[in-house]
Amino acid sequence: GPREDLAGRHVVVSAGGTREAIDPVRFIGNRSSGLQGYALARTAVARGAEVTLVAANVTLPDPAGAKVVRVESARQLREAVLTAAEHADAVVMAAAVADFRPVRQSDTKIKKSSAEPDPIHLVKNPDILAELGEVRRARREAYAARDAAGGAAGDVAAAGGREAGDGPGAATQVPGDGPHPRVIVGFAAETDDVLANGRAKLERKGCDLLVVNQVGENLAFGTPDNAAVVLTAEGGSVEISRGPKEDLADVVWDLVAQRLA
Ligand code: C5P
Predict the structure, then answer these.
(1) For the CA of 128, the nearest atom of ligand 1
(2) Residue 217 exposed, middle or buried by CB count within 10 Å (0-12, 13-18, 19+)
């Protein structure tokens, strides 16, 4: 690619929109096309990254050079993203994940009857972005505890770190290159109080960058153009004026590459 500033980096991008089954032929879904996530995957490949693209119900052709994992539901997306994130420098959650799913999925097609239809009861889906931040926070604590104990490099247990009272080197061996993913990026669509709502969401979800889409003026869903403001964990913001989703993707990777440098 023109800039190889992501060479040697492994990045994970989620794209598209999840579907939550009601019965074998029906689902609750959303209008996400996957265009922004695919643009992120393409531009990351062009900048030299190893890219895992977790695609939820996207009908676009696979981007050349990316490893594509296809999923349908939020729970499948969670599994694929958390697995890929174990070895990732950065994760960008561009997918529209369903907040809720039906409590029960009928094994057979629900029939039309003369009686009133049964209501569909919903339960909350896991928040994958928040979970990524939580997993990393736990790992950071484990590393900090190791450093405070003067432990050797590479001795932080993947799940929670050493037990109190363990001597140096007693914890499980994991790669000693720090808690991954080093950069976590979320997306948010806000219609009002964009900055205040975005800032609160960034903090709630524990991500490093939050790309806040300005929705509601023929932007974002299903269109080739996007406009956004990227909020940073340090309290900064970067405005991205309306333009191709590729341009927005390149600004996101600029900010990710800066944080990885
Ligand atoms: O809370 P909200 O849905 O606005 O957050 C959007 C961001 O959180 C996106 O990056 C989306 O991929 C992620 N998300 C998630 N798991 C959910 C809901 C949203 O990872 N269950």
Answers:
(1) 20
(2) exposed
